Structure formats: C-alpha cells, structure tokens
Amino acid sequence: MNSRKYLPTLSELIDRLSIVQLKEVFIPEHKAEYAQEIADICHDINICLSQSDVINAEIIRAIVVLSQMNLHIWHNESNYRKGVKDGNNLELTHGINGIRNIAKNKIQEVVGGRKDYKIDCLAAEFKDWEVSW
User: Fold this and answer.
1) DSSP readout, 54-110?
2) Single pTM value for the model
C-alpha cells in the first residue's frame, strides 16, 4: 500500500535531468540545490538502466534531441519573460514541446514503459525544426 504506483519513466527522468542541468548553469545562485537534484535523478536513472541493458544509438540521439529542444525552449521563454519579442515565438515553443514528447517516446520504445500519445505537430512555417527520425 505504501509503494508508489506511478513512477517517472526513464525518458521523463532524462528530460528532467536536461532541464535541471540548464538550471544549474543559468541560475547559479541555486547551483548546490540543482547539483543535489541532478545527483538524485542520476541515482534513479542508474536504477532504471540496471533493469534494462538496452542503450543504443537511437536512445542517445533522442537524448541529444531532447536536450537541444529543452535549451531552445529555455532561451525562447526566458527572452519572452524579459520582454524581448524579437525572434521569440511561443507557437514554435509549443511545437518544439511536441518534438520533446516524440524524443521521450523514442526512448520509451526501446526501454519499454508508458508513452505520451499527445504529440502536437509543427506548424508548416516551422518544418525546418522537424527531426529526421
């Protein structure tokens, strides 16, 4: 009864690791707290990896895509919050979030587990952002 029923998937842990790594770099006043969160996430990732011996190029590429999309979203939203309108497009951020979900699903396809089936597509004007899976 006390065990958790809904643990984060490996892809969700990797996504969170990517985001917290950005925070550690871009919010240095909380570096120690983010370093601890990174250590905790890495601990859980190691547990997940010990239960699956499948790491391949497809997973590594999905991790790279996930990290790149998180970085772009970070910069876009950060500039938007600062009032910088030039070059910011929240519709693009929304579409890139869909790419993040696809990358997480690619990881889950290899290791197994829950997937997110709500995948938003990119608007025609952002087709250059599509990943050649």
Assistant:
1) ---HHHHHHHHHHHHHHHHHHHHHHHHHTT--TT--HHHHHHHHHHHHHHHHHHHHH
2) 0.87
Residue partners of 118: CB distance under 8 A and separation at least 6: 101
8 Å CB contact between 72 and 98: no
**4 Cβ partners below 8 Å, 6+ apart?**
none
**Cα 121–113–1 angle (5° rounding)?**
125
Residue 51 host element (H or E):
none
Q: Tokens at residue 40, please?
A: 């905790």
d(CA 34, CA 59) in angstroms, rounded, equals 24
Residues 4-57 pLDDT 10s: 678 899 999 999 999 999 999 999 999 999 999 999 999 999 998 888 888 899
